[in-house]
Amino acid sequence: MNGEIAAILAMDGIASGAIYVLIGLGLVLIFAVTRVIFVPFGDIAAFTALSLASLETGGRPGTVGLVAVLAVLATAVEAVALVRNRAFHRLPRALLFYLVLPLIPAAAVWFAAGTTFSMPVRIVLSLALVLPIAPLLDRIVFRPIADASVLLLLTVAVALHFALSGLGLMFFGPEGVRTKPLTDAVFDVAGLIVNGQMLLILAASIVFCGLLFLYFEFTIQGKALRATAVNRVGARLVGIRPTSTGTIAYLLASLLAGISGVLIAPVTTIFYDSGFLLGLKAFVGAIIGAMVSYPVTALGAVMVGLLESFTSFWLSAYKEVLVFSLLIPVLLWRSLAFAGTEEEEAEE
């Protein structure tokens, strides 16, 4: 391996790591606020890419039907809960949030089937279509068992992933797709050819990470999310509703998943079940960040991307094995550190 090949592999690894950063941050965000390891996160990213590819061909993505069914189910669940609590004044807001708003992009895509849109319109429609999926799943599946153990929540999340994966096969078929590149620009940097698509992925990751930082630091809702993540009981005592902050967390995570799907679709062939592997690699980065630290999660995700890129050159047959083997030393170190903390607490 010479320096030029190493530079190419490093750029490819950083670009892949930038995608894993967005997905990993979404996983940490949901877990910190709700204690749910949201396994279907990658499926939402894959559904975005598949929906975008369907819109490119003038088709009607099956995501439309999924969103419509989820909207009806979530509205019914919320309405029943409000009626039982005699909170009838909140019914109009529930109908607006759980039924009307999710159905607007679904209806737009449904009636515009067969129309060829420009690329920005296709991207906006795809993002708007998948944006309600995570909050709706939260209301239907996770909120009724919000006080359950983390293990039970994880089991339900895994089952939900398999359900969405099966629906993806039914909606989009077994064939893989790639969307048109977002840019055809090519740059010569010190004699090295750099694809504009990779630079766009890296720039988008940096921009959205910065926006998340600003959101958490300088907005009331962002501070409410941080408070809920630190202490749910304390947040409730000061008037912060964990259900509301959980919905916001799922909404932001769904946006991150959608952006990841749009960015990765032109450079990787996406299948109906590709989301699981994407989410699992990002999960490795989230584990490095202990599922609580956003900066360490971002660094871990970039590390996963670099490891994946270089191992695909040296030992392509063992690429996945080596990437997931990174979990072993991290988990050993975490368990030893946790054991040391327990011993100190016991002595005190």
TrEMBL record:
Alphabetical keyword list: Amino-acid transport, Cell membrane, Membrane, Transmembrane, Transmembrane helix, Transport
Membrane spanning stretches: 6-29, 61-83, 95-113, 119-137, 149-172, 192-216, 248-271, 283-309, 321-340
MF GO annotations: transmembrane transporter activity
Subcellular location: Cell membrane
PANTHER family listed in its UniProt record: ABC TRANSPORTER PERMEASE PROTEIN (PTHR11795:SF450), BRANCHED-CHAIN AMINO ACID TRANSPORT SYSTEM PERMEASE PROTEIN LIVH (PTHR11795)
Bilayer disposition of the protein: Multi-pass membrane protein
Keyword 4Fe-4S attached: no
UniProt-listed GO biological process terms: amino acid transport
Protein name: Branched-chain amino acid ABC transporter permease
Organism: Reyranella soli
Primary location class: membrane
GO cellular component: plasma membrane
InterPro entries referenced in this protein's UniProt entry, alphabetically: ABC_transp_permease, BCAA_transport_permease
Family: Belongs to the binding-protein-dependent transport system permease family. LivHM subfamily.
Protein's UniProt keywords contain RNA-binding: no
Pfam family, one: BPD_transp_2
